[in-house]
Write a structure and sequence with these properties.
The chain has no helices and 32 strands. With 370 residues, it is an all-beta fold. The chain folds into four domains: 111 residues, Immunoglobulin-like (Sandwich), CATH 2.60.40; 67 residues, Sandwich (Immunoglobulin-like), CATH 2.60.40.10; 82 residues, Immunoglobulins (Immunoglobulin-like), CATH 2.60.40; 84 residues, Immunoglobulins (Immunoglobulin-like, Sandwich). The strands form seven sheets. Strands 1, 3, 5, 8, 9 and 10 form a six-stranded mixed β-sheet that branches. The protein has a six-stranded antiparallel β-sheet with strand order 14-13-16-17-19-21, with no helix packed on it. Strands 27, 28, 30, 31 and 32 form a five-stranded antiparallel β-sheet that branches. A hairpin with a 4-residue loop joins strand 6 and strand 7. The N and C termini lie far apart (134 Å).
């Protein structure tokens, strides 16, 4: 049959007359591909086994890829009477990328053959790459190998087809809410991941009440494709904060840090700010003081009102009044009124302010008749 048989390597003959229909294929991840060949063999031989393999190690027999559990349900072998053979692989994975060679075994001693160079299969997904300015962008439907058969590319804007072309490029003016993806005609179900500007929210940890002096972390949580490559932090009605990381930390937060915070996230597609989140730092009463009305001289029989003032968050919810360090009967409101002031009411008055974060006494105030 005019065979050219090379010297055997570990009992396997490389036979020149295995002819592959094509020697390289680039196919989409998730699609189906067929690798075909034809072969000849010495007269008087009967073929007993045919299969494909991808690995040949020194001193080790090649393994039939059809026996690999990872390929279960995805491979099919088809032979014909004219010594043709087809390997069909469905649901292609990137891990299927390899050089596939055909092998057959005959009923004669030493009748083990395979053919070079094989078929090199490259499996690629689709990825949208973004280039261009702030709003006017050029998108490329990118692959890691050149797809076989000059495909037609389909572009989708927010899920709707906007272009079909043999060119893999697409240009548009991008709005904040737009997303883009691409596919190849005939494989419309194998979309690329969509690209879009970051959609961001700010998360506060801990998520409950924040006590002054505690550690607080803000996280700029973002859904974006391509991934975010820059973060910016802002306090509302203030300047941008130092740092460009995904998190912003207050090691020891203070009441001055209370306010509205938001972040900006940027990828190659564009930039968007999050909505703001409130950081409410709680603290116990402070700057507690007592004031008296009227503020001038007090005459006997007049009405005198004492007021307890305090800075606190949450607001003070309980007041206790003291005269000469003894509590008043019924002295639990922010204001304490003495409707008919007498000399017996002369003394040093102070208040104590309480909230859920603690309490604080005022300094005593001397109230007396003149």
């Amino acid at each position: 049959r005019g065979l050219n048989i090379y010297p055997p390597i570990f009992g396997v003959l490389r036979i020149k007359h295995v002819t592959y229909t094509t020697q390289s294929i680039c196919a989409l991840k998730g699609s189906t591909v067929k690798l075909t060949c034809s072969y000849t063999y010495p007269s008087g031989h009967k073929v007993t086994s045919t299969f494909w393999f991808t690995k040949m190690e020194t001193g080790v027999e090649p393994e039939d890829i059809g026996q690999d559990p990872d390929n279960a349900g995805r491979l099919e072998y088809h032979g014909d009477k004219k010594n043709g053979h087809t390997l069909k692989i469905t649901d292609l994975r990137e891990s299927d990328s390899a050089t596939y060679k055909f092998r057959f075994i005959t009923d004669q001693t030493g009748g083990r053959y395979y053919g070079d160079p094989g078929v090199t299969l490259s499996v690629t997904g689709l990825q949208v790459k973004v280039t261009g300015g702030h709003q006017d962008k050029t998108l490329t439907c990118s692959t890691t190998c050149t797809l076989t058969d000059n495909p037609t590319y389909i572009w989708y804007k927010n899920g709707t087809i906007v272009k079909e072309d043999t060119s893999s490029l697409y240009s548009d003016y991008f709005n904040d809410a737009d997303s883009y993806s691409c596919a190849v005609k005939g494989h419309e179900n194998l979309h690329s991941p969509a690209v879009y500007k970051p959609k961001t929210t700010v998360l506060v940890s801990p998520s409950g009440e924040i006590a002054e002096g505690s550690s607080v972390t803000l996280t700029c949580s973002s859904d974006a494709n391509p991934p975010v490559d820059k973060y910016t932090w802002y306090k509302k009605n203030g300047a941008s904060l130092t740092g460009s990381e995904k998190t912003y930390n207050f090691p020891t937060i203070s009441s001055e840090d209370s306010g509205e915070y938001y972040c900006g996230a940027e990828n190659k597609y564009g930039r968007l700010n999050s909505s703001s989140v409130s950081v409410d730092v709680q603290y116990g009463p402070r700057n507690t003081s007592v004031s008296v009305s009227p503020s001038g001289e007090i005459v006997e029989g007049s009405s005198v009102t004492l007021t307890c003032s305090s800075d606190a968050n949450p607001p003070v919810d309980k007041y206790t009044w003291y005269v000469q360090n003894k509590t008043f009967p019924n002295g639990f409101g922010q204001m304490y009124n003495i409707s008919n002031f007498k000399s017996k009411d002369n003394g040093h008055y102070h208040c104590e302010a309480w909230n859920g974060r603690g309490s604080r006494n005022s300094t005593p105030l001397t109230v007396k008749l003149y």
